C-alpha cells in the first residue's frame, strides 16, 4: 500500500493495536506540516482517517518526531523549535503543549509500559516526561547534540547517542566528535558508562525487548549490535 504526498514524509509510527499508522509531512512548497492517521485496513483512495494541519495558524513549527500515546488515545509530537505537543487525533485539537527544549527534538521513545517518554534534542539534553500529562521528570545533560535516546525495558537505564554534525568534524578525530553511546541512570540522572565504536554521530538507538543488547545506527554507515556482559546483567542497585 502506498500513500502519496507532494512534500517529504518526516516521521511515522504504528498504533498499539497495529491497525493505524501515524505520519507527518514537512512544511514545504507552500504546503503546511500535517499529521495523518490512516487505517491500513482501508484502501488508500478512501483517504486518511484523520488529517491535522500543524502549522496552519503559525502556532507550531514542523514536526520532527512522533509517537502514539497510551492505548492509542492520543498522539505526541516533537517539533523543530523544541516543543512537545499532545493531540487528540479524533478531534484534531491539541490537548497539551510544553516547550522543554531550546532546539530541535530529534527523537521520542517510550518505556516498555508506555508510562514515560524520553526526548532527544540538539540542545545537548535528553529529558524524561510522563506520557499522559507531559510533566517533565528528569534531565540527562551532555556536551553534544543528542540525536536519539532509548529506555531499557529491564533496568532503570537510558542510553543517549549523538555527536557533532558530520560536516563539523570532517577533519577531527572520533574522540573530538564524541560519538560514544552514553548510559545514564534513569532516576538519578548520573552517567555511568560509555560505549565507543562509531566514528560518526549516532543517529538512532534501540534496546532489544529482552534488555540484553542494544543497536545503534550511525552517520558512518554502520549499525552496531552491542551485547551486555554478565556483570551488567547481574548488577542490581538497591534504592
Automatic annotation (TrEMBL):
<dbReference type="GO" id="GO:0002183">
    <property type="term" value="P:cytoplasmic translational initiation"/>
</dbReference>
<keyword id="KW-0648">Protein biosynthesis</keyword>
<keyword id="KW-0677">Repeat</keyword>
<dbReference type="InterPro" id="IPR001680">
    <property type="entry name" value="WD40_rpt"/>
</dbReference>
<dbReference type="GO" id="GO:0003723">
    <property type="term" value="F:RNA binding"/>
</dbReference>
<dbReference type="GO" id="GO:0071541">
    <property type="term" value="C:eukaryotic translation initiation factor 3 complex, eIF3m"/>
</dbReference>
<dbReference type="InterPro" id="IPR027525">
    <property type="entry name" value="eIF3i"/>
</dbReference>
<keyword id="KW-0853">WD repeat</keyword>
<comment type="similarity">
    <text>Belongs to the WD repeat STRAP family.</text>
</comment>
<protein>
    <recommendedName>
        <fullName>Serine-threonine kinase receptor-associated protein</fullName>
    </recommendedName>
</protein>
<dbReference type="InterPro" id="IPR015943">
    <property type="entry name" value="WD40/YVTN_repeat-like_dom_sf"/>
</dbReference>
<dbReference type="InterPro" id="IPR011047">
    <property type="entry name" value="Quinoprotein_ADH-like_sf"/>
</dbReference>
<keyword id="KW-0963">Cytoplasm</keyword>
<dbReference type="Pfam" id="PF24805">
    <property type="entry name" value="EIF3I"/>
</dbReference>
<keyword id="KW-0396">Initiation factor</keyword>
<dbReference type="GO" id="GO:0003743">
    <property type="term" value="F:translation initiation factor activity"/>
</dbReference>
<feature type="repeat" description="WD">
    <location>
        <begin position="195"/>
        <end position="225"/>
    </location>
</feature>
Amino acid at each position: 500500500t502506498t500513500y502519496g504526498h507532494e512534500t517529504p514524509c518526516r516521521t511515522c509510527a504504528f498504533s498499539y493495536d497495529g491497525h493505524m499508522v501515524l505520519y507527518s509531512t514537512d512544511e514545504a512548497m507552500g504546503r503546511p506540516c500535517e499529521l495523518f492517521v490512516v487505517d491500513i485496513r482501508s484502501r488508500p483512495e478512501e483517504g486518511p482517517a484523520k488529517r491535522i494541519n500543524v502549522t496552519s495558524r503559525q502556532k507550531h513549527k514542523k514536526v520532527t518526531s512522533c509517537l502514539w500515546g497510551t492505548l492509542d488515545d492520543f498522539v505526541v509530537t516533537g517539533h523543530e523549535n523544541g516543543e512537545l505537543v499532545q493531540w487528540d487525533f479524533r478531534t484534531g485539537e491539541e490537548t497539551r503543549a510544553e516547550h522543554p527544549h531550546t532546539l530541535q527534538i530529534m527523537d521520542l521513545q517510550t518505556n516498555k509500559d508506555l508510562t514515560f517518554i524520553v526526548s532527544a534534542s540538539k540542545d545537548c539534553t535528553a529529558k524524561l516526561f510522563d506520557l499522559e500529562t507531559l510533566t517533565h521528570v528528569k534531565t540527562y545533560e551532555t556536551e553534544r547534540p543528542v540525536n536519539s535516546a532509548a529506555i531499557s525495558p529491564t533496568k532503570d537505564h537510558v542510553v543517549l547517542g549523538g555527536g557533532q554534525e558530520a560536516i563539523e568534524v570532517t577533519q577531527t578525530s572520533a574522540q573530538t566528535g564524541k560519538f560514544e553511546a552514553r548510559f545514564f541512570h534513569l532516576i538519578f540522572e548520573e552517567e555511568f558508562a560509555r560505549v565507543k565504536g562509531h566514528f560518526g554521530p549516532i543517529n538512532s538507538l534501540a534496546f532489544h525487548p529482552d534488555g540484553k543488547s542494544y543497536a545503534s545506527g550511525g552517520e558512518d554507515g554502520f549499525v552496531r549490535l552491542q551485547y551486555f556482559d554478565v556483570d551488567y546483567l547481574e548488577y542490581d542497585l538497591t534504592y
